[in-house]
Amino acid sequence: MQSENNTSAPTTPRLRHRRRSNEAIPDATKANGSHLLVHDRNKYKSFLVRAYSTVWMIAGFVLIVYMGHLYITAMVVVIQIFMARELFNLLRKAHEERDLPGFRMLNWHFFFTAMLFVYGRILSQRLVNTKKMYKYQFSQYAWTHMILIVVFAQSSFTVASIFEGIFWFLLPASLIVINDIAAYIFGFFFGRTPLIKLSPKKTWEGFIGASVATITSAFVLANIMGRFQWLTCPRKDLATGWLHCDPGPLFKPESFPLPGWLPWKEITILPVQWHALCLGLFASIIAPFGGFFASGFKRAFKIKDFGDSIPGHGGITDRMDCQMVMAVFAYIYHQSFIVPQSFRVEMILEQILTALTYEEQKALYMKLGEILQERLFGQS
C-alpha cells in the first residue's frame, strides 16, 4: 500500500517564480522595426495627449518668461522641488518607513537646507537621530545627498544664467524643447532604425531630424531674441521693472553682402548667432544623452516614468533630464566665451565705485586723463 501511494502521488519539485515587474517595457521591434508609428492607430491617442500637455507647458513657460527674472527664478525653484519629490518617492519603502517616524520630513529638511545654502542663507537646526534600521537609513541619506547634488547643481547654474540675461536661459531651454518635440515627431512619422537599447522608442531618423531642426532653430531664434533688450540685459538687482542697457557687440547687427544671383543684396546677422550654433549643436547631440542616462536609471528601478505630474509625459524629472545637462553647459559656455567679450561701461563704472577707495578712484581718474591727453595730442 505504501508503494502504491508513492507511485500514485509522485512528488514534484517546487518551482520558484520571480515576481514580475510592473514596468511596461516596449517591444523594440514593434516600436521601431519595419512598421511606422504613424500607421499604429493606438499611438494617436498618446500623440494627442502629449500635444495637449505640450501646448499648456509652452504657454505657461512663455507667460512666466514675459513676467521677468524673479518669476523665472521662482519657476526654477518650483521645478526643482517637484523633481526632488519624484526622486524621493522613487526610493520610498512604506513598510520600512513606518518604523522611522518623521524620516520623510528629514529628507525634505535636507532639501530646503541645501536650497537656502545655495541661495546664500544658512539653516541651523538639530537633526533627530533614529537608532533603528541603520542600513536603510544610511542608504537613504546617501540618495538624499545625491539627489540634492543633481537637482541643485543644475538649478544653481540655471539661476546664474537667468541673471546674466534671460537670453542665456531662454535660448538653451527652448532648444531642448524643440529638440525633444522634433525627435518625437520625426520618430513618430519616419522612425524605423533603433538608436539605443536603453530607449527602444528612440530612432536614428528622429535623432537626425531633431538635430537639423534644433541647429536651424538656434540660428533663427538667436536673431529674434537678441533684438530685445529685455532679454539680453543682465539683472543686477531684485527689481521687476523692464531693463534698458547697452546690449554689447554680440547683439548689434552686422550686414554681410550676398552673391549677385540671389534676390537679396545683403543679410543681417547678430554675432551671437554664431554662438547659438554651438548651443544648438550641443542641444542636438550631447544633451539627449541626459535622457539616455535617465532611461537607464528608470530601467534599473523597473519603472516607466519618474512620476505622473504631466499627462502623456510622465513627471517633471522626465522633462528636465536633458535640461539639466544643457543648463550646466550653457552657463560654462557663457562664462568661458561670452563674458570676456561683453564688458560694458556700466559694469566697469560699477566695479570702480564699489571696489576702489576714494584715493584709488582719484588716481585712476588722473591716469585716464593723462592717457586721453596723450592720445588727443597724438591724433592732432
Descriptive report:
The structure is a single chain. With 380 residues, this protein is mainly alpha-helical. It is 64% helix and 4% strand. It has 15 helices and four strands. It has helices spanning 2-8, 28-31, 42-67, 69-90, 94-97, 103-118, 134-164, 166-190, 204-225, 229-232, 272-285, 288-300, 316-338, 345-355, 358-379; strands at residues 194-196, 199-203, 254-257, 266-269. A hairpin with a 2-residue loop joins strand 1 and strand 2 (199-203). Helix 6 packs parallel to helix 7, helix 8 (166-190) crosses helix 13 and helix 12 (288-300) packs antiparallel against helix 13 (316-338). The longest helix is centred in the middle third of the chain and has 31 residues, at 134-164. The chain starts with a helix and ends with a helix. 28% of the residues are buried. This is Phosphatidate cytidylyltransferase 1.
Which labels suit this protein?
single chain; 380 residues; mainly alpha; 2 domains; two-stranded antiparallel sheet; 15 helices; globular
Please report which band the strand proportion falls in: under 5%, 5-15%, 15-25%, 25-35%, 35-45% or over 45%. Answer: under 5%
The average pLDDT score comes to 77
Alpha-beta content class: mainly alpha
Order of helices and strands: HHHHHHHHEEHHEEHHHHH
Low-confidence stretches: 1-25, 120-130
DSSP summary: helix tally: 15
Largest sheet: 2 strands, antiparallel
